[in-house]
Amino acid sequence: MPLVTSDRKWRSREALTALIQGHLIRYPAAEPRDIYKLLYQGVLGPEHAISSVEEFEAELRAELDSIQPDENEPLWQPLRPDGQLGRLNLRPFKAHGGDPARLLEVCLRTAFQHWGTPEDLKRAWDTFATLTRRGTFPSMSPGRVDILTRYLILHNYPPMHHSTMFKRSYAPSYRVVAARWTSMLLVLGLPSIL
Questions:
Q1: pLDDT, tens digit (0-9, with 9 covering 90-100), for 84-139
Q2: pLDDT for res 159
Q3: DSSP conformational letter for 177
Q4: What gap in Å lies between CA 73 and CA 71, rounded to an integer?
Q5: 3-state secondary structure of 167
Q6: Using an 8 Å Cβ cutoff, are 174 and 91 in contact?
Q7: How is the chain split into domains, by residue range?
């Protein structure tokens, strides 16, 4: 069943400001491309991340095998103002004994839902760029946001990796999942995500 993105949520300066400020508080080394990735995932979901189920499963299992469990990292972080989609961090997932097979199922269910449109993404980015120029996010350079905006327009708003600084500072390890499917993970005794 497709989900309809509320166009107003992505244009709402208040909702977007709260989402991005929460992200910047947690990740002060984030750069404009990391905010773009946040918005991209929140608007469009994870469908671009799954080209083959077998490959996705192998990557998930390999990543889970390679990381150290960490109960201090938040298990869930919202990607959208409405909280319907978020990042499930793998280190706390592993620390709580999460089942990779269930997580795979939740990831696939999430990926095959319709989330938003490229127009929603453009609106969200435009709102962020406007807020940055007005000084709402002091750690974000308006000049760097403008350079990235030109790149995004030229390349039709493509998926993007985290910045090198973000990777170096936080070693992100997560999967994008829908809040509606997280109850499948809670059966295993994981702490409440929402």
A1: 999 999 999 999 889 999 999 999 999 888 899 999 999 999 999 999 999 999 99
A2: 94
A3: E
A4: 6
A5: helix
A6: no
A7: 16-186
